[in-house]
Amino acid sequence: HRRLHARESWLSEFNQTERKAMLGSYTKVLFVRDPFHRLIATFLQGMGISPSFSSFVQEVLDSGLHNSSVAWKPLVSLCRPYLVQYDYVVMFGFLRQELGHLLRRAGLPAGSLLPELTDSQVHWTYRWLSEQMFSELSAQQRKRLSRFYRWDLAAFPFSSSFLSE
């Protein structure tokens, strides 16, 4: 698209017709992950300087939406699902199943291209970690986190998220 190559632009700067023309020939895939799991992964990777998960969550909440790091910013604010009609939404934890389907739809041999993924172990590990980390949070932090990620929880099927309880 002509305007796209003129300068760096945000997708939201284009009207619906221009967006459709630009994105029409692409297969649009969105990879999503439970926001609470994203927080846990970010904390465990040492991206927060906090000594405890609870204090890390407090830093996240205090930063607000506009000053959030991409590592924990709500997905809806990053991927703009109301602007882009994604062809596939792939959930973390179901990668093997969903990537296999996606590769077959693209006409590629799914079995030989997929790395060894153990989705059931990922589910069990994150369930255990979530229980441990969630228990460290105060009732107020839990409530504020649910509010912080409310649009993600509404937009994507994170029904087993600790934040939707």
From TrEMBL:
Pfam families: Sulfotransfer_2. It is an enzyme of class 2 (transferase). The keyword Zinc-finger does not apply. Its EC number is 2.8.2.-. GO terms for cellular component: Golgi membrane. Keywords: Carbohydrate metabolism, Glycoprotein, Golgi apparatus, Membrane, Signal-anchor, Transferase, Transmembrane, Transmembrane helix. The keyword Cell wall biogenesis/degradation does not apply. GO terms for biological process: carbohydrate biosynthetic process; dermatan sulfate proteoglycan metabolic process. One of its GO terms (molecular function) is sulfotransferase activity. It is a single-pass type II membrane protein. InterPro entries: Carb_sulfotrans_8-10, Sulfotransferase. It is found in: Golgi apparatus membrane. Belongs to the sulfotransferase 2 family. This is Carbohydrate sulfotransferase. It comes from Sylvia atricapilla. The gene is Chst8_0.
